[in-house]
Design brief:
Elements: H1 35-39, E1 60-61, E2 74-81, E3 88-91, E4 93-95, E5 98-102, E6 108-112, E7 118-122, E8 140-142, E9 144-146, E10 149-153, E11 158-163, E12 169-174, E13 189-191, E14 194-197, E15 209-214, E16 220-225, H2 238-244, E17 256-257, E18 264-267, E19 272-276, E20 280-281, H3 285-288, E21 300-305, E22 311-316, E23 331-338, E24 341-348, E25 354-359, E26 365-370, E27 377-380, E28 386-388, H4 390-394, E29 399-401, E30 415-417, E31 422-429, E32 431-436, E33 451-456, E34 467-474, E35 479-486, E36 494-497, E37 501-505, E38 510-515, E39 521-526, E40 536-540, E41 543-549, H5 555-558, E42 573-579, H6 606-619, H7 621-624, H8 642-646, H9 648-654, H10 671-688
Parallel strand pairs: 1-36, 3-8
Antiparallel strand pairs: 2-42, 4-5, 5-6, 6-7, 9-10, 10-11, 11-12, 13-14, 14-15, 15-16, 17-20, 18-19, 19-21, 21-22, 23-24, 24-25, 25-26, 27-28, 29-32, 30-31, 31-34, 32-33, 34-35, 36-37, 37-38, 38-39, 40-41, 41-42
Helix pairs in contact: 6-10, 9-10
């Protein structure tokens, strides 16, 4: 439980009697984390008060009890079974000995940070059917804490405030149009008494925006759109009118995209909020904006006033985005000495493969360099504009483009150690075969990517296993200081500490501590479930703890990666470590048996199976994986029993398993469509029989 704080001695002026209050317990309902405390969060080494620990979101802790000398004695202190293995990407908060964390379906939890005792749980009751309008699983990345309240977004577009003391609902606001294909997976941010939240849904054809709500009442303070709407309706601001000049055709019919589904960072000194803006709808510019143009403010860092949402500046990382190269990846503030002058900068390593250093006061491009193998561009101009490879833009007949749409770096948080001067983040090396569907028509009920695609080799198209590594990047010299190769392309967010350590998890369940200066592995813990969320560290009564969520979500569900696809995945857990501890976990789950040939029979021609594969691509891929190979989080359809196949239509059209998270598709599919999808699934099971 939260430990009471002593109240100082107080003298009642003008009275003879002196009332001594020293030693009396403070009965205030919750810790008072106000604006001043958030601004000074860097000097509070015990707590983790906001998503990136401080407003700068550097994810660096000054704690040193766990260090390069002592980390070898780190052991499991306690754990909590989250009741699911999917959607666990959240960054916990710690305030006065209480740890707050979100899980799948936007469920909020509070624990005693030292003992693991669960204090409360708040379930916002997200309708399970809404999961069909989420591109990348039912994840939630975190919460915000302010003046005794805890805030989180919900998958169905609500912003919820509960009491920190008991998890009781204070207020909730619907931030998105009811029934529209918006979703919230990112963490809210606090800025000057306001709660800021964005949303996702670009692939379903929505228009992006960020909203600010009064933290006490839930009333809307302001809203800023990231792409222009229909000119006939008028523009909300001069910034939207200017952006419209960079679009053509009837882009608003498919929403335009530009959703701000993750990165939002606040600089209280400048009163600026920085928004990472996502991709267009559909992906390919030739379809959404046939006359070309930069399509502002897609794939941009957008700076607005925290007080009223007024546009200040923007920097576009990928003009006229054509490859799902979002700029929603983590944003980080820092002070760097560049060319003999200290600059207040914002740093980002977005999907497109370039590391950017931008002046955060003016939006001036300071430097940029590729941190991964790419072929869509050959470099950056002095102004920071990409020098494009024309073939990557044309996509004639299908083109291999690197990186692929999961990006050279995705949502996984990065950290910065001011002592080493290095930024630590995971890098993904892969390419993608883009084939534009010239007959695409907008349909808000399904993914509107408008292409066919597959993982491929770097640029030649040969069979290739995507690869990944942890990188330490020098943002001043724009060069790699060291790297650690990893067995899978996707890996977790990072934590940096003053103990000269970098912590990071991997999708194979390995949780490691590296020496920050050279990347040497100093400690590791093996868990049966992958760890992709970013760790945090905090202190209670002088003991330093390291906490991290295990469990998959997002691209880990969508992309059945080698070594993970179809495998056994254990329960997701909140894992908490401290020096000298040795708590044990239950025995791991046994590996899955080989896939067996299906016994259920369904007659179908080759042409029908092929048609079923296309229907599967449009409606099932987002959860059940490419080629019906699950990443282990949701059911692998190749393993469906004869009993499941017997009610296949009731599941897909009738919602027979909607309470379990399987939405119904009767508004977009009919019985014949379901038969064709089922024929494809049965074919994939037959092809995979005996193992993957």
């Amino acid at each position: 439980m939260r430990r009471p704080r002593p109240v100082p001695v107080s003298w009642l002026v003008g009275l003879i009697t002196v009332v001594l209050l020293a030693g009396c317990a403070d009965t205030s309902p919750a810790p008072d984390v106000d604006d001043a405390r958030l601004i000074a969060a860097d000097s509070d080494d015990e707590n983790w008060l906001t998503y990136g620990r401080t407003y700068k979101e550097q994810r660096h802790s000054p704690l040193t009890e766990v260090s390069e000398e002592t980390v070898g004695r780190l052991g499991l202190a306690w754990y909590y079974d989250m009741g699911t293995k999917r959607g666990l990407e959240g960054t916990p908060l710690v305030v006065e000995g209480v740890l707050y964390v979100t899980g799948a379906w936007s469920v909020m939890h509070a624990f005693d940070a030292a003992t693991g005792e669960r204090l409360w749980t708040h379930d916002p009751q997200v309708p399970r059917g809404h999961s069909r309008f989420v591109c990348c699983d039912v994840v939630n990345r975190g919460q915000a804490f302010y003046r005794g309240q805890v805030y989180a977004g919900t998958l169905d577009g609500r912003l919820v405030s509960v009491t920190a003391e008991g998890g009781d609902l204070v207020w909730e606001s619907q931030t998105t149009p009811v029934g529209e294909a918006y979703s919230i997976t990112g963490a809210p941010r606090i800025a000057g008494g306001k709660v800021l939240i964005g949303s996702g849904g670009a692939e379903y054809g929505v228009r992006g925006y960020v909203s600010a709500y009064d933290a006490a009442t839930g009333e809307l303070s302001w809203r800023v759109y990231t792409v222009p709407g229909n000119p006939a309706d008028g523009f909300e601001s001069d910034a939207m009118a200017a952006a419209a000049e960079t679009w053509s055709g009837e882009w608003w019919e498919a929403g335009g995209g530009g959703t701000a589904w993750d990165a939002i960072v606040y600089d209280p000194e400048l009163d600026l909020v920085y928004i990472g803006v996502g991709n267009g709808s559909p992906w390919y510019r030739q379809l959404r904006s046939p006359g070309g143009g930069d399509n502002l403010y897609l794939s941009s860092i957008l700076a607005v006033r925290a007080s009223d949402g007024e546009y200040v500046w923007h920097f576009q990382t990928t003009p006229g985005d054509n490859w799902d190269y979002t700029a929603t990846q983590p944003l980080m503030l820092a002070e760097l000495e560049i060319d003999g002058r200290e600059r207040r900068v914002i740093m980002q390593a977005p999907k497109n493969g370039f590391f950017y250093v931008i002046d955060r006061e003016t939006g001036e491009f300071l430097s940029g360099e590729a941190f991964a193998d790419i072929n869509w561009a050959t470099g950056l101009t002095p102004e920071g504009r990409p020098i494009e490879n024309p073939d990557a833009r044309a996509l004639e007949g299908g083109v291999h483009v690197a990186p692929g749409p999961t990006g050279a770096h995705n949502w996984h948080p990065m950290s910065f150690n001011p002592e080493t001067g290095l930024v630590y983040f995971p890098v993904q090396e892969h390419s993608w075969l883009h084939v534009v569907d010239d007959e695409w028509e907008y349909d808000r009920r399904v993914l509107n990517i408008a292409g066919d695609f597959a993982y491929t080799g770097p640029t030649t198209g040969e069979a290739w296993t995507p690869r990944g590594h942890l990188v330490a990047w020098d943002p001043v010299t724009q060069s790699e200081a060291w790297r650690v190769e990893q067995p899978h392309p996707l890996s977790g967010g990072t934590l940096s500490t003053a103990g000269n350590l970098v912590f990071q998890g991997r999708p194979d369940g390995v949780f490691r501590a590296y020496r920050a200066t050279d990347g040497e592995v100093l400690w590791e813990f093996q868990h049966e479930t992958g760890i992709l969320a970013a760790p945090i560290t905090y202190s209670v009564d002088g003991t330093q703890y390291v906490a991290v969520l295990s469990g998959y979500g997002g691209p880990e569900v969508l992309f059945n990666l080698p070594g993970l696809a179809g495998g056994s995945v254990g329960p997701g857990r909140l894992l908490v470590f401290a020096l000298g501890e040795n708590a044990s976990l239950p025995e791991p789950m046994p590996p899955l048996p080989p896939i067996e040939a299906p016994t259920f029979e369904l007659a179908a021609t080759e042409a029908e199976v092929e048609q079923g594969s296309l229907l599967y691509l449009n409606t099932c891929l987002g959860c059940h994986g490419f080629a019906a190979v699950s990443g282990g989080i949701v059911p692998d359809l190749r393993r469906s029993t004869a009993e499941t196949h017997a009610i296949f239509e009731q599941i897909v059209l009738g919602g027979a398993r909607e309470p379990l998270g399987m939405p119904r598709f009767d508004d977009v599919l009919d019985s014949e469509d379901v038969r064709l999808i089922q024929a494809y699934v049965l074919r994939r099971a037959l092809e995979s029989a005996g193992g993957n």
